Amino acid sequence: MSNRMKNPAEVIPQAFKGIGNLLAAVADGGLPETTTELVAIRVSQLNGCAACLQGHAVRLADVGIPIEKVVGLAAYRESPFFDDAEKVALALADAVTRLADSEDAVSDELWREVTKHYDEKQTAALVLCIATHNLFNRVNVTVREDAEHPFWLR
Questions:
Q1: Does the model's pTM come out above 0.90?
Q2: Rounded CA gap, 146 and 149, in Å?
């Protein structure tokens, strides 16, 4: 599958800079890097973004995510390989990514669970992480970003 156009973040360098700033903010939020990677992969799975999945696959070993978590990610709720904090972060990722699928996508119950495991800064980072990866996915799927050679890995 070929790209429809260059990635907008490549065409408009200010956009790439802005995305980089969002990612830097997420990194400064105090979340474990493994959590941000798992969330990014989960969001990309839900959105069917092959380029993002490939981009995150190359980081798994660097971040220290074991294969059991990668294989079990689609069934994280039932998997014994995720702790409660990771499960709730992934549940929030599911809810935010699928906002239109529910009248109350991010329920008060889910929010209480999130804030039980993460402080305010970490929660802010988690919300930004989910939103940023949804942004990536929507752009990359729209332009059919090359999954084998995404522009940010060239």
A1: yes
A2: 5
